[in-house]
Structure formats: structure tokens, C-alpha cells
Amino acid sequence: MAKFIHNLRQPDDVALSLENFDAVGASPKPLKEGLAIWMHHTENAWLAEKALGPERVFRLRFDRIEHEPEPLMHELLNFLDEPFSPACVEPLSTKTNSSKVDSKRADLASRISRIQHYKKASRLFLSLDTPVSTSDQTQAYGILEERFEAYWQQQKR
Questions:
Q1: Which among 22, 56, 137, 141 has the fewest CB atoms less than 10 Å away?
Q2: Where do the DSSP E strands lie in 64-150?
Q3: What pTM did the predictor assign?
Q4: Separation between Cα atoms, residue 56 and residue 80, nearest integer Å
């Protein structure tokens, strides 16, 4: 049975990183577009969490990579039914593919707070810890099926 990892990061961090993607050789995205991308991916991952449950989807909170790497790795490997080795934590001590945005964070707060998508993204981020009922699970599964079918039909064109 397939298992999935939902790598959840704060919406403002993702938008700022995407805005500065040219630092890593990719195309930068305006803040509003970065937030829309975050919303799209996060909403779909949340639907997968609701539809498949915690046995199949592990939510990895991105900030834990920096602040709690070893406990996080223990939990993740346990979820994957894999043994822990201290060597698993070593790669987490090095930042890779960084869009080098640390010096730009102060400016971000004033710019991003004016974007309507940011308010929606913040509400979604805060709602992710809402308990899931059986009807939520069934509804989420149906929405995912519809989205997958629509995506598949679009790809065939």
C-alpha cells in the first residue's frame, strides 16, 4: 500500500521562496502566484490526508527539519516502517536549493499582508489541524477523484 508525505510549510515562506527562485536557476513567481501555488498544493495534500488517513499520509512540518531533525526522522521512518540510523539525520544539517531569502523576510510581512490570497492561505494553514470525521473522509475522497479525473482529461488534450 502506498504511503505519502505531506511536506507542510508556512504559506508566506513558500511564497517568498518562489518569488526568489531565480537564485536557484528557476523562474521566480510573484507573491500572489506563489500563494496560489501553495494553496493548490496544500489543499490537495489536506484532502489526501483526510481521504486516506494518518496511516497513509504523514504530515511533515517543514520547520521541524531545522528545529527537531532527529525526532522528526524517527517519526517519519516509523511511519515508513524503516529502521532509524543516525546517518539519516546528517543531510538535514545542510541547506540545499536555498533561494536565499533570509534577508528579505522583514520586507515580506508588509507586502504579503495586503494580498487577499495570503488571508485565504493563512486561514487554510490554521484549519489543517481540524479533526476529520468519517463524512469528511468520504467527501475528501470524492473531491480528489473529481480533481484527478479533471486533471487527467486536461492532460489528454
A1: 22
A2: none
A3: 0.84
A4: 9
